[in-house]
Amino acid sequence: MSATLAASERAGQASPPHAPVLQVRGLVKHFAVGGGLAGGGRAQVRAVDGVDFEIARGETLGLVGESGCGKTTTGRCILLLERPTAGQVVFEGQDLTAMSDSDLRRARRRIQVIFQDPYSSLNPRMTVGQMIEEPLAVHGLAPDPARRAARVAELLSHVGLLPDMALRYPHQLSGGQRQRVGIARALAMQPSLIVCDEPVSALDVSIQAQIINLLEELQETFGLTYLFVAHDLSVVRHISDRVAVMYLGRIVEITDRRSLYDDPQHPYTRALLSAVPIPDPVVEASRERQVLAGEVPSPLAPPTGCVFHPRCPMAVAECSRTVPPLKEIRPGHHAACIRLEPALPRPLAERSQEQAASNDR
Amino acid sequence: MERLLDVRDLRTEFATGRGVVRAVDGVSWDIMPGETVALVGESGCGKSVSALSVMRLVAPPAGRISGGCIYFRGRDLLALSDAEMRQVRGRDIGMVFQEPMTSLNPVLSIRRQLTEMLEIHKGLSPAAAHARAAELLGLVGISDPERRLRQYPHEFSGGMRQRIMIAMALSCEPALILADEPTTALDVTIQAQILELMRDLARRFGVATLMITHNLGVVARYTDRVNVMYAGRIVERGSARAIYARPRHPYTAGLLCSVPRLDAPRPAKLVTIPGQPPDLTRLPAGCAFAERCPLAVSRCREERPELDEVETGHLAACWRTAEVTKELAA
User: Fold this and answer.
1) How does pLDDT run along chain B (330 residues), one tens digit per residue?
2) How far is A199 from chain B (nearest CA, A)?
3) A–B CB contacts, 8 A cutoff, strictly below
């Protein structure tokens, strides 16, 4: 089970034959803010404003964007931790938004979550063993205590922790170890989909790499599907098969990893990629950078038309009037920008050459 | 040229329930006028405590500076009285912290926070201080300064608050700014704006900067010289170009390998540094990195290596430095 083999297997899944594990359709989440008890004058925060995507089995979809773009809310809506204002979350063929609470509880066992800060998501008064055991008992996955203890030990070894860690409390663990416990607890439920919400952003770089490798190994071993929500574009590139870029509640670009990073189309994606400093002074000295002016507008009063137009270097008058739909610019490459024209099909020979050249990407 | 700041054998420790934490364990580094120097390392390596020590802001009774000297323009800051030190803080040395919301006073207007320093340190009249405050806001790219001066910190976004912190740090025309993770809490497009602003202003006014960060990309883009810290000590120092081209300490090599890079082919697996940093209350006798080091030999566990010159201007604290290559960990 070498890492290269896994990578080539994943690459082979570019067009999955089976039904997607998750389909998100027209997802909208508005929060009412402000106003008094009377309810007058309340404003709407349009946190997620019409998001569609699918994730195939065994695939990792990266969801990137800056604070307030709605990526975390999208994840929480998929987990039904927030009730979507509109839209469907279809998980393994069933619409979670239409389910009764008891059905939802059962379905939700198969969708787990790993949070950013493992310390605040672990109970400080419970041992690691108790925390992993509890959901096993609740869901009846290992009814007798002896089986549960064995299962806890097994789960700990899956995430690279020694069995005696079961007796420790969260404060006795390092940040990396806490995140491993969070992962073990998610795995305990034998999920098919895991929503990873910034799972490595609170960790130091040397530990970050350990956790990313662990997530990839577990995906391979258990056939997991990941929605990987993060703001770090380098990390997302490493772990994702496909990537969706969000801005102010909408997906502005979605495509496979290679196209997004080698040939970004949306001006926002381009600006984001250009803003990431490369850890190499020689590369940095010769790199042309495009610093985006201004800040992300408030989702309370998003701009008219394309929400990115006030900061966009390519904007024309029309951009402030028309909301750009996501359209296919290249096969499998969607972007929401009226300034982009679908590329004309190029000669096949040229494309296959490029394919060969970028195979190591 | 004379050194602006010269830190020698600095030791800062904290008394905790588990014993004495030697957060900074004998470090020496310096900054020349106008230079941008990085202090880079992971959580708990002592980089922030180093900066707090320079400002003498290590909180007693738990924390204390137990040894060393900090020469600023030839004067040892550790020998100054509290009153003299207050003159240095803010006037000669400015600070920018990671989280601007917790460093700004939430109940005072921006005007009050900017003019206070100008009146105390520069002896400006209230009217002159107000005019200067408005000018400073313009300098850091905040439009409509007159209106903005009347506002409070919560009325600004994270990036705008950090611009205000920079305006405050620059207000008394310091010779040095200590910037502790100034953009870590900010989004990547805002991070780029703030770092470009800091660099432009530092060049324009000839201010030296100590950039404390864990982000190796930020170090590569914005700094001239780099100090890499691990477990309270400096393990490598050199020009940014030399360190990135050929790291001479296995920890630096491991760090550089473990970050995924946007400009390089995607590896099937990330290189990791195994294990985790040591407990600072129980530092080993030898090299603190030996436990995690792929090159460690028995000498490394017994004898602590000192920072030693491997090439002109490039130092490493490692017995095996000749064996270190960039692809070491891979």
Assistant:
1) 799 999 999 999 999 998 999 999 999 999 999 999 999 998 889 999 999 999 999 988 999 999 999 999 999 999 999 999 999 998 999 999 888 778 899 999 999 999 999 999 999 999 999 999 999 999 999 989 999 999 999 999 888 999 999 999 999 999 999 999 998 888 888 888 899 999 999 999 999 999 999 999 999 999 999 999 999 999 999 999 999 999 999 999 999 999 899 998 988 888 889 888 898 888 999 999 999 999 999 999 999 999 999 999 999 999 999 999 766 644
2) 15
3) 132
B16 interface with A at CB cutoff 8 Å:
no
Closest partner CB to A4 (pick from B245, B268, B270): B268
Structure tokens belonging to residue B58: 């290590």
Contact B240 A281 (CB under 8 A): yes
Sorted by where each starts, the structural domains of chain B and their CATH numbers stand as: 5-223 (3.40.50.300), 233-323 (no CATH)
CB–CB contact B266 A284 (8 Å): no
Q: Does the beta-carbon distance from B188 to A360 stay under 8 Å?
A: no
Structural domains in chain A, sorted by start: 3-110+191-357 (3.40.50.300), 123-190 (no CATH)
